[in-house]
Amino acid sequence: LAKTTQPISMDSYEGQEVNITCSHNNIATNDYITWYQQFPSQGPRFIIQGYKTKVTNEVASLFIPADRKSSTLSLPRVSLSDTAVYYCLVGDPMDSNYQLIWGAGTKLIIKP
Amino acid sequence: GAVVSQHPSWVICKSGTSVKIECRSLDFQATTMFWYRQFPKQSLMLMATSNEGSKATYEQGVEKDKFLINHASLTLSTLTVTSAHPEDSSFYICSGVGAGGRVTDTQYFGPGTRLTVL
């Protein structure tokens, strides 16, 4: 399983764009990159998933460079409610252990 | 998106008693369900993988006789913490993966159950 490295914490302000980068140097050919959000005392919530280049949905964008050794979750115009822990997971969806190893995540704090 | 519920959302029990936590997929059939444990300010730790109609697969270090898992249907999995002790106090979270075999299947998580053992 590819190991991921994320910053432990980040601060930003309301209305700003926030970019959280995840390093996954030993990502395998069949691996996808998935990001989850978790609020205190709640289960994680799926944000976005991608394989290469750029993926965008209604809440975020995911940028993946050509070598796929890192990825960046981009949250546009954050609000206070985006304060949460964000997890980056890498794995092969067809692997029985897909997405089961969770790193420490990035604690994002949004200030007014 | 797919919805997973857990019941109860929180429970307090005395040491030595057993507690059952239910995990239900409300709008999809979960062929596989996962049970996690999360201690304060820590990440999720996988406890076991549960496939409908078969025995659960436990992670190393998780006592299968203490944490009983049953996945009797495609929409329900239960975790029973037997003879609970204060060190079992934690946040227990389940997730489900739907049938269909899509390459980009993701896990859908329940809201979690806070267990406090006195």
Topology:
The complex is a heterodimer of chains A (112) and B (118).
Chain A: E1 9-13, E2 18-23, E3 32-38, E4 45-50, E5 53-56, E6 61-64, E7 70-75, E8 84-91, E9 106-111
Parallel strand pairs in A: 1-9
Antiparallel strand pairs in A: 2-7, 3-4, 3-8, 5-6, 6-7, 8-9
Chain B: E1 4-7, E2 10-13, E3 19-25, E4 30-38, E5 45-51, E6 57-58, E7 67-73, E8 76-81, E9 90-98, E10 108-109, E11 113-117
Parallel strand pairs in B: 2-11
Antiparallel strand pairs in B: 1-3, 3-8, 4-5, 4-9, 5-6, 7-8, 9-10, 9-11
Kindly describe this structure:
The complex is a heterodimer of chains A (about 110) and B (about 120). Chain A has no helices and 9 strands. Chain A is mainly beta and about 110 residues long. With about 120 residues, chain B is mainly β. Chain B has strands spanning about 5, 10-15, 20-25, 30-40, 45-50, 55-60, 65-75, 75-80, 90-100, 110, 115. In chain B, the strands form 2 sheets. In chain B, strands 2, 4, 5, 6, 9, 10 and 11 form a 7-stranded mixed β-sheet that branches. Chain B has a 4-stranded antiparallel β-sheet with strand order 1-3-8-7, with no helix packed on it. In chain B, a hairpin with a 2-residue loop joins strand 7 and strand 8. Chain B starts with a strand and ends with a strand. Classes of the chains: A mainly beta (about 110), B mainly beta (about 120). Chains A and B meet through strand 3 and strand 4 of A and strand 5, strand 9 and strand 10 of B.
Q: Given the C-alpha coordinates, what overall shape of chain A results?
A: globular
Strand fraction of chain A equals: over 45%
- Structural class from helices and strands of chain B? mainly beta
Q: What is the β-strand count of chain B?
A: 11
Elements of chain B, N to C (H/E): EEEEEEEEEEE
Helix content of chain A: under 10%
Largest sheet of chain B: 7 strands, mixed
The main sheet of chain A comes to: 5 strands, mixed
Oligomer: heterodimer
Could you tell me the radius of gyration of chain B in angstroms?
A: 14 Å
Strand portion of chain B, in percent?
over 45%
Report the mean per-residue pLDDT of chain A as an integer: 92
Largest interface: A-B, 21 and 25 residues
Kindly report the average pLDDT value of chain B. 90
Total helical segments of chain A: 0
Helicity range of chain B: under 10%
Q: State the end-to-end CA separation of chain A.
A: 38 Å
Poorly predicted regions of chain A are none
Going by helix content, strand content and strand pairing, the class of chain A is mainly beta
Instruction: Tally the helices of chain B.
Output: 0
